[in-house]
């Protein structure tokens, strides 16, 4: 609170308009890295918010083209707020010319998929007699037409579902994983897309795994692969997967993770699902599991964010909302994703597959789109992914000084206070005021006298101006570190919570013991640092000055 600025009445009137209009412009390719950030040519952060689009199964055709026109899918991806697609491909597409030159029709015919052929005939007749590699290029090009960036992800070698522990595609030297062929394929793919502006990255290999995996060979071949890609296409980010299904990057040295001839292009990737930890989420106490899992991730991969960009290139949930393991994980994931503000790729866009693991037309319940690729499978759930799309901080976004937003992972919304007359509510984070969390543990609205106060169990929290009492102090508690706890003035211990109306209330703290049956997620909040431009704060600041609340007398209370 010390050092806050007071402005004239006129200036705050103008500022909100100017600042709220400065939206994010399209990225200027090529991308590069600057410490942990991916940046465009002008040094401005580009947060990759991608969807995985599968093109590595047996037909080797991007999924969904029998359901909707290609251009419509690409436009849909952009309208859903994704700025990027992680497009998967099998190595053989780049190394086996007799495969790559099959037409789409021939590929489906060979698999007996007559329905897919008639679907493509109806929705994408132009594609039916293109070759598989031309079709792949057409998908990239269609995404480009919609300003969607592409990461080419070498998912496996032999077309098919991925990833079994011993499926022959897991590690260098496996039956289908000849390192020389892999280098050859990467080189051809990198060369093919050289100069294609929306191809911004190549992830060299998905989910390394299996009995052969070892750190020595990881370095040997990943360095070779990275150099080969860079030599053929110096514009793309080179994205490297860790070991053990891309869960483990702990063997990397923060200062010099690899010995490469180039710099400013290296990104690491990580996969994080609920099932990465078996059924721990469903069977354990959610606060405890969240705390433990995030602790492990800090050690295995998040530590890299001190120096390098980390793309969480696969995460996702059953979007029917029926999987308890997934649901509990998602709230923890969202809290961490907002806090670390990492780049990510949702698994998956795909609503259904032509053929997966022998099943024709298999529905993908982890997919954002429904079976017919027509609508969102679950639009309310999708809002939670949307909330994570815009960057909160990073180079070029510093329109304001650092402040906090109070993020609510279970909804993807933030604590907002737009009016002095109503209780605080959850609302879009892009409309969040700037909050401050002081060393005295007071949660105050920056540049105002107001702080959040607990009133009574079950009652809305309020904004007060005398911020020295115990009901204005908020401890961050529980193993998840996502409960905000205070004491009411008559001594009841409470946690910040949300009622069915999205009003911010206080209630008894949930799930702080080892209870595994309870769900604390309505009480999970994350104080996330942001430098994103603000729309609301200055308006509030203006209100504050108009009301001419005590200018001097209360400053002492706030800054004590
Ligand atoms: C190349 O692809 C063709 C067509 O799918 C297939 O018959 C052949 O076995 C593949 N060759 C290799 C070496 O995998
Ligand atoms: C790094 O690579 C360069 C050439 O690529 C080589 O000369 C050098 O010995 C390598 N250093 C280490 C520590 O492996
Ligand atoms: C969407 O997901 C929520 C859980 O986030 C669930 O309660 C709801 O039933 C789902 N809706 C549909 C249409 O699947
Ligand atoms: C609430 O009261 C308890 C018991 O007196 C105390 O341990 C705790 O620190 C208080 N919480 C805050 C946020 O002041």
From TrEMBL:
Domain Glycoside hydrolase family, chain residue ranges per copy: 72-349
Gene3D superfamilies with a match to the protein in the record: Glycosidases
Domain of life: Eukaryota
SUPFAM superfamilies the record matches: (Trans)glycosidases, Ricin B-like lectins
GO molecular function annotation: hydrolase activity, hydrolyzing O-glycosyl compounds
Keywords linked to the UniProt accession: Glycosidase, Hydrolase, Signal
Sequence similarity: Belongs to the glycosyl hydrolase 5 (cellulase A) family.
Protein name: Glycoside hydrolase family 5 domain-containing protein
Species, as recorded: Eucalyptus grandis
Lineage: Eukaryota, Viridiplantae, Streptophyta, Embryophyta, Tracheophyta
């Amino acid at each position: 609170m010390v050092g806050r600025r007071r402005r004239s009445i006129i200036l705050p009137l103008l500022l909100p308009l100017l600042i709220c209009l400065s939206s994010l412009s399209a990225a200027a390719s090529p991308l590069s890295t600057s410490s942990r950030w991916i940046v465009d040519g002008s040094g401005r952060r580009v947060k990759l918010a991608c969807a995985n689009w599968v093109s590595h199964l047996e037909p080797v055709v991007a999924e969904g083209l029998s359901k909707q026109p290609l251009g419509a899918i690409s436009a849909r991806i952009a309208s859903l707020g994704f700025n990027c697609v992680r497009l998967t491909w099998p190595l053989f597409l780049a190394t086996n010319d007799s495969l790559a030159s099959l037409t789409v029709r021939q590929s489906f015919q060979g698999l007996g998929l007559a329905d897919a052929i008639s679907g493509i005939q109806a929705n994408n007749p132009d594609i039916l007699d293109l070759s598989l590699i031309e079709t792949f290029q057409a998908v990239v090009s269609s995404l480009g037409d919609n300003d969607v960036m592409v990461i080419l992800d070498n998912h496996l070698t032999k077309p098919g579902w991925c990833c079994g522990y011993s499926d022959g595609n897991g590690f260098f030297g496996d039956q289908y994983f000849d390192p020389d062929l892999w280098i050859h394929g990467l080189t051809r793919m990198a060369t093919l897309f050289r100069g294609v502006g929306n191809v911004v990255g190549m992830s060299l290999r998905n989910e390394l795994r299996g009995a052969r995996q070892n750190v020595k060979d990881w370095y040997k071949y990943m360095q070779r692969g990275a150099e080969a890609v860079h030599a053929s296409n110096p514009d793309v980010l080179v994205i490297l997967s860790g070991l053990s299904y891309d869960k483990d990057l702990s063997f990397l040295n923060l200062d010099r993770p690899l010995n490469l001839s180039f710099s400013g292009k290296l990104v690491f990737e990580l996969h994080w699902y609920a099932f990465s930890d078996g059924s721990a989420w469903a069977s354990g106490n959610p606060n405890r599991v969240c705390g433990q899992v995030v602790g492990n991730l800090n050690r295995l991969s998040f530590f890299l964010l001190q120096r390098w960009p980390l793309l969480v290139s696969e995460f996702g949930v059953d979007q029917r909302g029926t999987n308890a393991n997934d649901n509990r994980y998602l709230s923890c994931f969202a809290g961490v994703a907002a806090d670390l503000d990492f780049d990510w790729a949702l698994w998956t866009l795909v609503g259904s597959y032509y053929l997966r693991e022998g099943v024709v037309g298999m529905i993908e319940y982890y997919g954002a789109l429904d079976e017919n690729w027509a609508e969102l499978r679950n639009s309310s759930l999708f809002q939670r992914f949307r909330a994570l799309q815009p960057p909160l901080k990073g180079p070029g976004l510093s329109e304001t000084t650092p402040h906090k937003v109070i993020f609510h992972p279970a909804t993807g919304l933030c604590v907002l206070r737009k009016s002095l007359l109503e209780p605080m509510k959850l609302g879009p984070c892009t409309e969040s005021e700037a909050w401050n969390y002081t060393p005295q543990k007071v949660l105050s609205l920056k540049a105002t006298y107001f702080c959040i106060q607990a009133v009574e169990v079950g009652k809305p929290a309020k904004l007060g101006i005398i911020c020295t009492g115990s009901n204005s102090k908020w401890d961050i508690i529980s193993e998840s570190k996502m409960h905000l706890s205070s004491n009411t003035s008559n001594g009841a211990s409470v946690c910040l919570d949300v009622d069915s109306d999205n009003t911010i209330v206080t209630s008894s703290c949930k799930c702080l013991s080892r209870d595994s049956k309870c769900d604390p997620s309505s009480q999970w909040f994350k104080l996330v640092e942001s430098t994103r431009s603000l729309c609301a704060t200055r308006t509030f600041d203006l209100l504050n000055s108009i009301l001419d609340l005590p200018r001097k007398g209360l400053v002492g209370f706030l800054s004590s």
